[in-house]
Structure prediction request, 826 residues.
Amino acid sequence: MESNTPNPNPELITSKLTEIENLIEEEEEFHHLNNPADGIKPVVKKYLGVPNHADQVGNKFYFTDGDAKVEVVVVTDEIIRVRLAPHSVFLEDFSYGVPKLPTRQVSFSLHEDENEFRVSTYKVNCHIRKKDFFISFSDSNNHVTSMDATPMHWEENVQAGGYYVFCTKTCAPDESFFGLGDKPTELNLRGKRLKNWNTDAYSFQWNQDPLYRSIPFYISVNEGIAHGIFFDNTFKAQFDFGSEDRTKTSFWADGGELQYYYIHGPHMMDVVKSYHTLTGTHPMPPLWALGYHQCRWSYYPEAKVRKIARGFRENKIPCDGIYLDIDYMDGYRCFTWNRKYFPDPKKMISELAADGFKTVVIIDPGIRVDDNYSVFKEGKEKKYFCRRSDDYFMEGHVWPGRCQFPDFTNPEVREWWGGLFDELVQMGVAGVWNDMNEPAVFGAGTFPDDVRHQYDGYRGSHRKAHNVYGMQMVRSTYEGLRKIMKNKRPFTITRAGYSGVQRFSSVWTGDNVASWEHLKIGNIQCQRLSISGIPFCGTDIGGFSGEPDGELFTRWIQMGTFSPFMRAHSAGDTKEREPWSFGEPFTAINRKFIELRYRLIPYLYSTFWEHHRYGFPILRPIVMHEQDTVMNHFRQDEFTYGDKILVCPVMEPGQRKRNVYLPKGKWYNFWTYEVVEGGKEVSVETPLETMPLFVKAGSVIPEYPVMQYVGQQEIEEVKLNIYYTDYEVNSFLFEDYGETFAYEQDIYLEKKFVVNGDAKTVTIDQSLEGLYTPRYDGYHFNLIGFPFKPSKITVDGKDVKEFQLNDDNTIEFKYTKTFKHIEISK
Ligand code: MIG
Prediction:
């Protein structure tokens, strides 16, 4: 049921194809400029006519104008899917983004009157207007949240063998837009026009588009109400948020089906959580992956790798991951080793492991054409490499020279590729880094359009498979590792991706630059990725290309401490770039922040669980906390890390003071414990050794002792920092083995802390859920901001005799067993 036939001219060489593609693009641009869907309709465009009929099959409704058909599917109470078939023939339901539609039981109804058909759940109505086939959505209060500005339309493109599909909705005057993954532009996408086409974008710039990933999901906030649109189409797609025409929001793709999910809010958080019910969440990462990672292009030979590792231990800077970039391979052949540089990799990896380092290796998709190379030979024999429409193998140049590329959209190829990691895993490799998987090809940029892909049985050209190629590569990697590592959690990182890539991998933002501007770009990108369904993300700390000075590097380490994924990386032609490379005071400050990262690992891990289990993002921009205030739609510096810690990176050189917005409520300055009332901007001192960090009143922030790597010592007690509140606040602590999938069988422990207080008494209650028993019992309590000196502390009815009142007004005491109820009274 493939709508797109191959490019009919196989003789065209790559450059010619690129030329043609550019022409098509220009033409498209031209079409759009001349047709912002406001009346000047080119003849080739077809619009839906008048719906004259409604059919129902289970939770699916069909409306037709006689020729074209529209399908409306009730997915959940909050999610409705709309699809268009220009001649009534729908493609088979298959999507890499949505492996399976949720199957919860939903009640819904169809209503018809003289003006419209209406499909309703108890939260959403989908209106199909009889006059003109306009589709709109409203909530249970009849508040219209999304409305077509023209009927859905398409262009029959015989040349390209398919349709260009378009959807145009109205854009309200104060409507804001968020999402779309890694776009390096303002957080609020209002007024932007953006493209999804995975691209290797070395040293990308502010506003450059497209970059490495395609996440066709956005969130609209208008009049305080949020909804989401997930345009699940893998072809080159574009989005226009009131850019061509301030009153219209459009999205279109140059192939495939016009298919989108309308996701109801009313809060942005609801939209993101629902989006995750479609595309899945990130599995729990191995605990060590939450530590600090050190990378460079490249650390080699072995002596250098060991020297770097030693450097961490000697400088007492914690580190868990060390990376081998492409030079570890023999002539850049994947799954081989350069034995001159690494004579005994197994020995090296196991000695690094004994010192607490996990080794992560890079793998690229390009396989060197070389009959003496087993991976190539096997792939060739089994016909696993991508082919052009004329059946010749697709070839391109990348690091190894002349290469062919596995078709990761073929399940058999994925299985094969996944198995190739066996040897690396036996050597002790703990994680795999997937690079160049946009896919990137030197010169041509990427594959020619006519390359054929198996696409899990739904064959198609590269036009359809391009944006999912990288995701399928890292899926193959993840699934292969998972099999080989048995019950251990693999760690993977990828550059390219499509919606749903979070089921298989973490991501980094690609080849950024060592500049202050890029620190700002990275801050926005991580927030944007987080709310676009990609929670485990980070930037190349320090900037990949170019040279940061000590100050920029340290400010980047500070921000990176609060990136879900924390890794420093640098290009090969730059100066040494380890956390101690810049001398004092930088080394000490870098150490302090990386230590803070490790202290907060239980907090981050618990937040990760909240993501995995419930679909909450790890980083949350201000707008996600207070979407009612339009001003907040434009704040992009501050974010919360989980829901308890507010972070504001310092992103200007020499900045010793800055304004920080705090959402409503009471906040504690993390460094001084000063209480600040939120709902406004406050001025914060920002000397280099600190950065604005605030903790919500009532929080219980768990802390592990600083270790040089995760699991260095058994944890004997956990510190609980308890921030005074006079209203009830809940906190969670999630714990488990940290490296197996036992959590899938409920072998975990979720601790819930409830803190409440008044001027005389504070209570802390703990309840437990799950089957895991931590190896420690004891807590070290640190009470912060209490308005009184306690005269009595009881834990489960027993008096605590020894507690310490500190000069900074904190109160500390220890209790060697777990507890249910604590009372601290004046
Ligand atoms: O053509 O493997 O983004 O992180 O160090 C460059 C070498 C290939 C690009 C990645 C970068 C990596 C580099 N790679």
About this structure: The chain has 13 helices and 54 strands. Residues 297, 325-326, 362, 435-436, 495, 510-511, 569 surround MIG (CB under 6 Å).
